[in-house]
Every structure is written in structure tokens, then in C-alpha cells.
UniProtKB/TrEMBL annotation:
Enzyme class: isomerase
Similarity annotation: Belongs to the myo-inositol 1-phosphate synthase family.
Catalytic function, reaction form: D-glucose 6-phosphate = 1D-myo-inositol 3-phosphate
Name of this chain's protein: inositol-3-phosphate synthase
Keyword presence, Isomerase: yes
Coiled-coil region list: none
UniProt cofactor(s): NAD(+)
Biological or metabolic pathway of the protein: Polyol metabolism; myo-inositol biosynthesis; myo-inositol from D-glucose 6-phosphate: step 1/2
UniProt-annotated location(s): Cytoplasm
Originating species: Ranatra chinensis
């Protein structure tokens, strides 16, 4: 179930699921096209198994390696603050080619999002013109409604399990306040009293956790306040995030790792973006941009801390991120980066990169990967192979509720306290 189902990511993901399931071809000026899942780690990549007797490398498709759910078996639903059906949402997004839109409309016109939660303080004021599909009542009543929605969706579609994913607008950061959202019990109490610092995304996370289903945060805000993480650990429910890593940031994480690993010292990175979709419109507000800026900036931190030859303790790269809203370019985001690095004997190396990222077409396969891997993780238990473990350690156990295996697909990896994870 997608929160923000009618947005660019949600409508594009739904279109991709249906096009692949139904085998819908379509025409463009370049010829006939068939649906695929290019950009998906689980559907379009291979794993090297080893070498044959003749020394030839042997590769296996990723989905053939483990018993993963097939995308055709995924049922999608969700919530949105806009009541438009998914066919109209797809048209509004201007992502899917028009001939494929025509073929999908009979199926997507029938899909309608459930009413969602809207707190004006958390997203940009410029989103108000989309708001016509809201849950009424207090925060506690809204929480109970979301829980009922999850249960009814599972029952109506005869599903084994539900995964809830936030793919709605970026929110501002929530303040972490002692006595409000610092513990699980305090957070539940704050929801009951309607405290202003409980965000919509945290409400959805709490609802999903209390229903026993995985929750994934695809945006950069701090949905997982300490109380929310404590609740997930207490209930033994998976959570993952934060913020889909698709275009510019994926390239940045790989490139900076390459430079640092090669002994080259990046000292300045300036990243400029402009885009014209609703995400860009929402990010034109300063508080929402701040959430995204933090997420995009943190992606290089691990690389810097990994090399104490290049970087002294506390030394940082000058790293600036700029995002501008330009309606004309729509979902086709332009990303321009300048990387300045120090090389030997006082020399400098400068890389200037232009990257045109079709935002939602890059995000949708990552959404699929997060869903498929989260579902797979729910069926895996493990224990130590030796006999030295005693007590609980000798039994099979699940992954930690903070599902760090998903972090490869996220800008700001969510990991258990005390653990670290490469952001590559």
C-alpha cells in the first residue's frame, strides 16, 4: 500500500506493474516498445556464481537465486490527499508515454485512493490545491482508520501480507521532544492527545507497525523518530528507509567512493538540480527542502570517514545542494555536478557532469526492489552454524527490525543504533 498513491511515483509504479503483468506494447516515434523492469536490482541484474570447469564466468539472474515474490503477484492500493483516480493521476504526472497511457486507462481509471492524512504544517503550502480526499477526526481516530484500511485491503484481496510504503511528499523534519516522541509509549500518548509534532508519515508508520506489517519510508524526513523505532523493535516489525536513491545521488555515492578509493581527495562538490514535477514544487518550500538537503548531503559521509590519509579527523568536503522548481521540465530532472579534487603536488582535478534523470521512471524500479526484498526478509530466519551459542542465541531468529539490508536503495540508510553501513 502506497501513501501518496496518486503522485508521480505511485502512478508510475502502478502503470509499470500493470503494463508488465498485461504485456502491453506501445508505440513511440522511435518504434514499438515492450514493458520491462530495467533499473531494478532484483529483476534486471545478475549475480556471478563462480567459474565453470573451463574457466568461464557463470552468472545467474538475481530473481532465480532466491525465492522472491514475482512483481505480477503484487496487488497495489493506497492513500492520497487527492481524490483523482489513478488514470487521471498518470495523465497529470506526464511520465508514461501517451500510447501506453491510452492502453492503461481502462485499468487505471478503476483505481481510487483511500482518503489520507493532511497536516498543512508538514508539507508546502503550494500543495493545498490538490487536497480534497482527507480523513476526518483526531490523530488517534486517523490512526485507527489507517489500521482498518490495512486490514480491509489485506482481506479484500486475499493477501499473505501487506507492506506500507511512503511515496508521498517530503515533509519538514519533526522536532524530537522528550516526553512526546522519544519513546514508544510517549509517542502513542502524543498521538492520543493530538500533539502537533506527530507527522502524517509517523502516523502511517505507527499504524503499519501496530498491524504487524513492514513500513518503508521513501522520503527524507525523520519519520522514524526514536519512539517509532522503539515501537518497531518492541513489536518485532520491520522498518526501512530513508529516501529513494535513484539518479544524481546514486551516481554521487559511486563516484565519490571511486575517487576516495583511488587516493584522490574530493574537496568540493556542488550539486544543482531543477525539476518540474510535484516533488519539485513541494521542495521549493524551505522547510521541505531542508529535509531533502540533509538526505542528499549525508550520502558521502562514510567515504570521507573511511580514509584517514586523505581526511583528518573532523575534516569535511565543501558540499552544497541546490534544488529549483522549473515547471516546464516536468519529471525529467536536470542534475549538474562539479567535483573538485586535490591530486599530488598541489594539483587539482575537476569533473563536471550533466545528468538528465527521469525521476519517477528511476524511482519505480527501486520501489519494487524495496518491496520484494522486504517481503523476502520476512521469510528468512537464521542462527549460528556452530554449537557454541547458548540460550536464545541458539534458536533461529529474524533480521533486526531496522531492516538495514534495504539501505542500498536509500540515500540516508537506516541502521540499528551502534551499527554502520556503507552508503554506496
Amino acid at each position: 500500500m502506497l501513501v501518496g498513491w496518486g503522485g508521480n511515483n505511485g502512478s508510475t509504479f502502478t502503470a509499470a506493474l500493470l503494463a508488465n503483468r498485461l504485456g502491453l506494447d506501445w508505440e513511440t516515434k522511435t518504434g514499438r516498445h515492450s514493458p520491462n523492469w530495467y533499473g531494478s536490482l532484483t529483476q534486471a541484474s545478475t549475480v556471478r556464481l563462480g567459474y565453470s570447469a573451463s574457466g568461464r564466468e557463470v552468472h545467474c539472474p538475481f530473481p532465480a537465486l532466491l525465492p522472491m515474490v514475482h512483481p505480477d503477484d503484487i496487488v497495489v492500493g493506497g492513500w492520497d490527499i487527492s481524490s483523482v483516480d489513478l488514470g487521471a493521476a498518470m495523465e497529470r504526472a506526464r511520465v508514461v508515454d501517451i500510447d501506453l497511457q491510452r492502453r492503461l486507462r481502462p485499468y487505471m481509471d478503476k483505481l481510487h485512493p483511500r482518503p489520507s492524512i493532511y497536516f498543512p504544517d508538514f508539507i508546502a503550502a503550494n500543495q493545498a490545491d490538490r487536497v480534497d480526499n482527507l480523513l476526518e477526526g483526531s490523530k488517534w481516530e486517523q490512526l485507527k482508520t489507517i489500521r482498518r484500511d490495512i486490514r480491509s485491503f489485506k482481506m479484500e484481496n486475499n493477501l499473505d501480507k501487506v507492506i506500507v510504503m511512503w511515496t508521498a511528499n517530503t515533509e519538514r523534519f519533526s522536532q524530537v521532544i522528550e516526553g512526546v516522541n522519544d519513546t514508544a509509549d510517549n509517542l502513542l500518548g502524543a498521538i492520543k492527545t493530538g500533539h502537533a509534532e506527530v507527522s502524517p508519515s509517523t502516523l502511517f508508520a505507527v499504524a503499519s507497525i501496530l498491524e504487524g506489517f513492514t513500513y518503508i519510508n521513501g522520503s527524507p524526513q525523520n519519520t522514524f523518530v526514536p519512539g517509532c523505532l522503539e515501537l518497531a523493535e518492541r513489536e518485532g516489525v520491520f522498518v526501512g528507509g530513508d529516501d529513494f536513491k535513484s539518479g544524481q545521488t546514486k551516481l554521487k555515492s559511486v563516484l565519490v567512493d571511486f575517487l576516495v578509493s583511488a587516493g584522490i581527495k574530493p574537496v568540493s562538490i556542488v550539486s544543482y538540480n531543477h525539476l518540474g514535477n510535484n516533488d519539485g514544487k513541494n521542495l521549493s518550500a524551505p522547510h521541505q527542502f531542508k529535509s531533502k538537503e540533509i538526505s542528499k548531503s549525508r550520502v558521502i559521509d562514510d567515504m570521507v570517514s573511511s580514509n584517514n590519509i586523505l581526511y583528518k579527523a573532523g575534516e569535511k568536503i565543501d558540499h552544497i545542494v541546490v534544488i529549483k522548481y522549473v515547471p516546464y521540465v516536468g519529471d525529467s530532472k536536470r542534475a549538474m555536478d562539479e567535483y573538485v579534487s586535490e591530486i599530488m603536488l598541489g594539483g587539482h582535478n575537476t569533473l563536471a557532469i550533466h545528468n538528465t534523470c527521469e525521476d519517477s521512471l528511476l524511482a519505480a524500479p527501486i520501489m519494487l526492489d524495496l518491496i520484494v526484498l522486504a517481503e523476502l526478509a520476512s521469510r528468512i530466519t537464521f542462527k549460528r552454524a556452530d554449537n557454541s551459542a547458548e540460550g536464545d542465541a541458539a534458536d533461529y531468529c529474524n533480521f533486526h527490525p531496522i531492516l538495514s539490508i534495504l539501505s542500498y536503495m536509500c540515500k540516508a540508510p537506516l541502521v540499528p543504533p551502534g551499527n554502520s553501513l556503507s552508503r554506496i
